C-alpha cells in the first residue's frame, strides 16, 4: 500500500523526480481505482472518457488527467456531462492529487468524508456552472469536517449545489485558503468566527444561503480580502466596524439580509471600494458623510432600509458613481445640489423618501443619466427646465410630489424618453402640445394635475404609446379624431374627469387572449362601459349581479370562457339596453332568467352551456331579436312556437337539448317570417313534421337576389356566429350567416310523411331530416329546391323511388338517402355521378349504384376551387358548399383579426379598477401567446364528435 503523509511528501517528490524517465506510467493502483470509479458513471457512452482504458497510458492519453513524476497530479473533468456520485471516488488511491476539478457536471449525493485524505490538494472545485443550468451538480448533505485536513488548499469552490447544514469551523485551519466560494447552497447556521484565521483570503462568497446570526467581527482580520459577498442570507445584528480594516476591499455586498443598526462610519475608510450594496436590510441612522471618501465607488445602493436624516453633501464627491440608489428609506431634507457633480451617473433613484425642497437645477448636468426617479417624496417648486439637457434620459418619474407650475417645454427635447410619469402633482399649463415630438414615448401618465388646454393631434404621432393617462386634469375641447387610430397600439387611454367634450364609445375589448381569473365581479363598477368583449379567454368564476348595473352596456360578449354558476336573474332586465348577449361555450348552469324586457336585444347566444329548465316566455318581449341560439344545453320544454312572433328573427337554434312533444302552431297567420336558419336537431320532438309551421317561413320561400347581410351597428366589434353541422363537420359560420338558409330537423322522433310543401322552401341550401321515423315517398316537390347543396334524408323509413326531379338539383353537393327502404333506379346525370355508394347504402331495392366516382371534369373543378380557398381545408370537406363556408368564415375572421390585436380601453368616468391594471400587465406577457392562438383560431372549423 502506498500511504504518504504530507511531511514525507517533499522528500518523496525529490525521490520520484530522480526517476522521472524511468517511471513513465501512473501507478497501477491509481489507474485501476479511477477505472473503477468511471464504471459507476450513469452515462457510460460518454465519448470523452473513451480514452480511459486499462491498456492506455493514463498519464499521457487519459482525458482530464495530468501527472507529475508519474503520479496523478490533476484531475480536471469540468463540463464533461458526467452523471455520477463521489461515493466510489478513489480518495485513498490518489495521494499526490493537487488539483481536483469536477465542476459543471451532474454529480449528486454527498461529499464523502474521505475527501479529507487528499491532503495535498491545492484546488478543490465541485461547483456547478454559474452561467447556465445546463450542467448542474447537485451535491447534498453537509460539508464534511474532514475538509479541515486539507492543509494546502488554496481554492475551495462548492457553489451552486444543494449543500445544507452549517459551515464547519474546521475550515478555519486551512490557512492557505485564498478563495472560498460556498454561494448558492442551502447552508444554515452562523458564519464561523474561525474564518478570521484565514488571513490569506482574498475572496469570500457565502451569498445565497440561509446563514443566520451576526457577521463575525473576525472577518475584519482578513486584510487581503478584495471581494466579500454575504448577501441573500438572513444575517442579523449590525455591520461590524472592523470591516473598516479591509483596506483592499473592492466589492462589499451585504444586501438582502436582516442587518440592523447604523452603517459604520468606518466603511468610509474602504477607499478601494467600487461596489457597495447594503440594500434591503433594516439599517437605520443616517448615511455617514465618510462615504464621500470612496472615490472609486461606481455603485452605491443603500435602498430599502430605515435610513433617516439628510443625504450628505459629500456624496457629491463620488465622481465615479454610475448607479446611486437611496430609494425607500425615510431620508429628509433636500436633494443636495452637489449631486450635480456626479457626471458619470446613469441611474439616480431617490424615490420613496421624505425629501422636500426643489429638484436642483444641477441635476440637469448629469448628461449620462438614463433613469431619474424622484417620485413619492414631498418635492416642491417647479420642474427645472435644465432636465431638458438629459438627452440620454429614458425614464423620468416625478409623480407623487408637490411640483407646481408648468411642465417645461424643454422636456420635449428628451427624444429617448419612453416613460414619463408626472401624475399626482400640481402641474398646470398647456405645454402638452409638444409632447408629440417625443417619439419614443410608451407610457405617459400625467393624471391628477391641473393641466389645461386642448389635446393636440400631434399626440397621435406617438406610435409606440401604450398607456396615455391624462385623467383628472382640466383638459377641454374635443378628443382629436386621430385618437381612434391609436387603438392599434394603445392599451390604456384614461381621460376621466376632465372637461372634454364630444363623445367616445366606452369599450373593453380583450377577446382572444389567455386571460384568466374571476375578477369579472367588479366590472359592474365601470358604469360607462358600452362594449365588453372578452370572448376566447380562460375567465372563470361566476357572473356577478353588479354587471346588471352597467346600464350603458350594449354588447356583452363573454363567450368561450370557463364561467360557471347561474345567470343572475337581473340579466333579463338588461335586454332593455343590451344588443348582444353572448355567453356561448361556458359552463353556466341553472335556469334562464325569466324577466326579459322589451328593448334592443338582437343577438342572444348561450349555446354550449349546461342550462336546464324551460325557455322563458318573456323573451317574446325582445322584438328586435335576430339571432337566438340556445343549442347544446339541457333545456327541457316543448317547442317555443311563440318565438314565431318575433318579427326579425332570422336564426333559431335549439339543437341538442331535451325539447320534446309535437310541434303545433297557434294558428297565427304570420310566424317566423324572416327565419332563415332553423335548427332543432337532436331533441325528442314527436309526431308529424310541423306542416303548419312549414307553410309560413316566408323568407325561405323567396330567393334574395341581393344576398346582402343587413348592416349591424357594432359589427366592427362583434360578429354574430352560429355553428352549422354538415357532413360530420361543425363549422362556425361568421358574418355570412344571414346569407344561408337551412333547416335541420335531424335526430328527433318525427313520423309521418315529408310534407310536399317543403318543396316551396326554395331558398334552402341545406335540409336535414335524417334519423327520424319518416315514412312514405319522397315528395317530388323537393326537386324544386334548386339551391339546395346538402340534402340528408338518411335513416328513416322512406319508400318508393328517388324522384326523377332530383336530377335537376344541380347545386347538390352532398346527398344522403342511405338506410331507408327506397327502390328503383338511381337517377343519372348532372350531379348524380359525383355521389358515391355511401349516399345510397342500406336501401335494399335501389339499383344502378355508381361504380365510378369523382373522375369527371366537375371533380377537377372542385379540386381547383379547393386550392384557391385554403390549403388547410380538410380533404374530406371538398364540396363547394363547404368551400363557401370556409371562404366566408375566413373573411369574417380576417376582419376580426386586425381588431383582435388591439386592446382598447376607454374610460370616462369613475376610478380605474385594479383588476384591469392587472389584466393589462398580464396581457403584456401573453400577447405573443395570444397571437399564436389567434392564428390557430383561423382554422375555424373542428370535427364534432
Ligand atoms: C480545468 O479546465 C478548465 C478548462 O478546460 C479550466 O478553465 C479550469 O481552470 C481547470 N481547472 C483547474 C483546477 O485547473
Ligand atoms: C484561530 O487562531 C487562534 C489563534 O491563532 C486560535 O486560538 C484559534 O483556535 C483558531 N481557530 C480556529 C478555528 O482555527
Ligand atoms: C492592499 O494591496 C496593496 C497592493 O495593491 C498592498 O500593497 C497592501 O499591502 C494591501 N493592503 C493590505 C492591508 O494588505
Ligand atoms: C482607484 O481607481 C484607480 C483607477 O482604477 C486606481 O489607480 C486607484 O488605485 C484606485 N484607488 C484605490 C484607493 O483603490
Ligand atoms: C462640485 O463641483 C464644483 C466645481 O467643481 C465644486 O465647486 C463643488 O465644491 C463641488 N461640490 C461637491 C459637493 O463636490
Automatic annotation (TrEMBL):
Main location: membrane
Span of the signal peptide: 1-26
Enzyme Commission number(s): 2.7.11.1
Keyword line: ATP-binding, Cell membrane, Glycoprotein, Leucine-rich repeat, Membrane, Nucleotide-binding, Phosphoprotein, Receptor, Repeat, Signal, Transferase, Transmembrane, Transmembrane helix
PROSITE patterns in UniProt: LRR
InterPro entries attached to this UniProt entry: Leu-rich_rpt, Leu-rich_rpt_typical-subtyp, LRR_dom_sf, LRR_N_plant-typ, LRR_R13L4/SHOC2-like
GO biological process: defense response to fungus; hormone-mediated signaling pathway
Highest taxon listed in the record's lineage: Eukaryota
Compartments reported by the entry: Cell membrane
Domain Leucine-rich repeat-containing N-terminal plant-type positions: 29-67
First-tier enzyme category under EC: transferase
SMART domains in alphabetical order: LRR_SD22 (SM00365), LRR_TYP (SM00369)
MF-aspect GO terms: ATP binding; protein serine/threonine kinase activity; signaling receptor activity
Disease resistance R13L4/SHOC-2-like LRR domain ranges (all copies): 193-303
Transmembrane segments: 885-908
Annotated stretches, region: Disordered: 853-876
One Pfam family here: LRR_14
Membrane topology of the entry: Single-pass type I membrane protein
GO cellular component: plasma membrane
Catalysed reactions, as listed in the record: L-seryl-[protein] + ATP = O-phospho-L-seryl-[protein] + ADP + H(+); L-threonyl-[protein] + ATP = O-phospho-L-threonyl-[protein] + ADP + H(+)
PANTHER family the record matches: MDIS1-INTERACTING RECEPTOR LIKE KINASE 2-LIKE (PTHR48052:SF5), UNNAMED PRODUCT (PTHR48052)
Family: Belongs to the RLP family.
Identification of the protein by name: non-specific serine/threonine protein kinase
